[in-house]
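# step 3/5: fold
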Amino acid sequence: MSNIFKYFILLILLNNCSLDTKSGIWTEKKNIKIEKDNISKIFSKDEVLEKEFNPNLKIKLTSRLKNNSFVNNLTNNNGRINYNGDLKKISKFKFSKIKNFKYYEPNMILESDNLIFFNKNGSVVKFDLDSKIIWKKNYYKKEEKKLNPILTFTQNSDTLIVTDNISKYYALNIKNGDLLWSKYNSSPFNSQIKVYKDKFFVIDLDNTLRCISIKDGVELWSISANDTFIKSPKKLSIIVVDNVLYFNNSTGDISAVDINTGSMLWQRPTQNSSIYENTFSLKMSNLVANNEMIVFSNNKNEFYSIDLKTGSLKWKQSINSSVQPSIINNLIFTVSNEGFFIILDTKTGNVLRVTDLFGNYRKKNFIPIGFVVGSKNIYLTTNKGRLFVADIETGKTKSIIKIDNNQISRPFILEKNLFLIKEDAIIKLD
């Protein structure tokens, strides 16, 4: 089977992103418009949760607040972020429209008072909060630029690691954008990137995990989780805990490998991969971990807790969600695809409270994209450009902010600012 045919689906979905530096200036700040809404385990095994449970239960958090939760987060657990923004002003850094944005999971680098993103021909652009371009670099050949590469970033101290969907990976000096080294892989990449000590880890479309030296880009080891035709349009997830790396593949298997040797420690299937229809439509959340377990969910009404050491199932709950959860002390926070804010007990998986975030807005067919937990509120984005702000203590929606009519990314937080990416702009709220 040719590589062109194997990667046909993903290359259709992920293409043509642009950052127009001519129009890329922060717009004048405007007042944010708020939309007003007039509005023990009791669920059977396969029932999709569509009702509130213990809605009057108040949750008071006393956990430490996290800073820099978006910088090379090895466990994907953003936890409770030191943020309680007023969300009174909004400005935009405009760029050319990203085609098929709903299939693309963008990420940007948040570095002190600077941001790093990219344009349609693969230029990496670093700019500050006043829209001043600090540097702009492009290391693609003419024919590569025409493919409109989609870039994924991570950083390690002064090094920016870049992978893309046309099989290239390279490293830049984050201070000036100078190229440190550049390499090609046998297939495109489609995962998060994680940096650990002097190595970084990434998964390609062949479901192969690759360990690569940050110093010179040399591959140190690789391991194939599953050679399958099914290529997930969603980025695969990677976490690292205590010298063990955990990742999922496109058919829902969770694997643990020794981070130094690449030796497989265990693998746990979560789906019947023989049922092609089910695995092709599978959409998993990112893996999230603490020191004892990995939690994740999917759009098949399954929420899992897996033991870190053995891969054994600790518990499984019927929750239909494909957004990244958060673990805060002995609680797990998630939002179902139907718009219910759910809090679970980490030890037992018991549902403690369910509250309805969407209310009368459910008729608009909103779908959650991602959320973060702040000091007092959660901030949830949707496929139709709304940012829901809900009180943690009560679980009730406090405000609904209209950002756009189309999909926006999950929230990113840098100090006192909340950032969102939409198809033609980076949004800054303060």
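# step 4/5: annotate
Confidence is low (pLDDT under 50) at residues 1-19, 37-44.
# step 5/5: archive (pending)
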